[in-house]
Amino acid sequence: MTFFEKLENQVFSKQTFLCVGLDPVWEKIPSHLPRTQQGMLDFLLKSVNQTKDYAAAFKPNFAYFEALGISGLEVLQELIKKISPEVPVIGDAKRGDVGHSAQMYASAVFESFGCDAVTVSPYLGQDTLQPFFEYKDRGVFVLCLTSNQGADDFQLPDLHLQVAKKVREWNVSGNAGLVIGATHPEKIAAVRKISGQMPYLIPGVGAQGGDLEYTLLYADDGSKIPYLINASRSILYATSGEDYAEKAGIAAKNLRDRINTTRSSL
Questions:
Q1: First vs last C-alpha separation in the chain
Q2: pLDDT tens, 89-117?
Q3: Any domain includes 264
Q4: Which of 19, 42, 132, 220 is 20 to 30 A (C-alpha) from 32?
Q5: Is residue 263 part of a domain?
Q6: How many domains does the chain contain in total?
């Protein structure tokens, strides 16, 4: 089953367009948990268990695990193995390198870690992304318009539109998508006009305060899965108390319901 087939099953069985980001930081993890590999894994798995009924996908951010060295990578690998195989995992790795390096990055995220999809950077061009697209059963979300303040340095006023155009050309296997930040809702309509129908992975509606209503309005493309709305910190760290997992589940449900209510009102 391909990434997008898995995703479609989750979207319709759970009636959700929510993607839950998994970004572990010791300083934010409840203090009662042991500061060990097992403590971090337990924190993440309990959060996953409480949010899985509302999540169409999970998105572990590789940087947070890599920062912990070998132990962090071992937690990441075990975490992905423990997430139900029916639920797609997006490896938020933002890879982008030349030649054989790109091939190794693709092999690592798809084969060694077993992710169903990945985030990549297009700055070095098509040949650096081709190794990822060659995994036709996996999803490839290309950074297009990100939610950080520095996006203005290069992506605007029109580089993001060039990226959208190129990714549409490269999407010969139908496994491409774009990363579009919700902090620029007024730009999304222009991107959609150029990209045509392909899923958007949209961060920025949680802790970063992006506008959900306008984001959904402009990102819609009439397809079954026009987007995934990602939230990480606002769900994972809904509380620092011992009931962190339950509160994460409540936060995930609330955002899932808010997305659905907003969609139905547009």
A1: 32
A2: 999 999 999 989 999 999 999 999 999 99
A3: no
A4: 19
A5: no
A6: 1
Contact 91, 62 (CB under 8 A): yes
Q: What is the 3-state secondary structure (H, E, C) of the chain?
A: CCHHHHHHHHHHHHCCCEEEEECCCCCCCCCCCCCCHHHHHHHHHHHHHHHCCCCCEEEEEHHHHHCCCHHHHHHHHHHHHHCCCCCCEEEEEEECCCHHHHHHHHHHHHHHCCCCEEEECCCCCHHHHHHHHCCCCCEEEEEEECCCCCHHHHCCCCHHHHHHHHHHHHCCCCCEEEEECCCCHHHHHHHHHHHCCCCEEECCCCCCCCCHHHHHHHHCCCCCCCEEEEECHHHHCCCCCCCHHHHHHHHHHHHHHHHHHHHHHC
Q: Domain span at residue 207?
A: 3-258
User: Known catalytic residues?
Assistant: 94
Pairing of β 227-231 and β 117-120: unpaired
Supply the CATH number for residue 153's domain: 3.20.20.70
Burial environment of residue 38 by CB neighbours within 10 A (0 to 12, 13 to 18, 19 or more): exposed
**Per the domain annotation, does 62 fall within a domain?**
yes
**How much is the pTM?**
0.96
Dump pLDDT digits (tens) for 13-41: 999 999 999 999 999 999 999 999 999 99
pLDDT digits (tens, 9 = 90+) for 44-53: 999 999 999 9
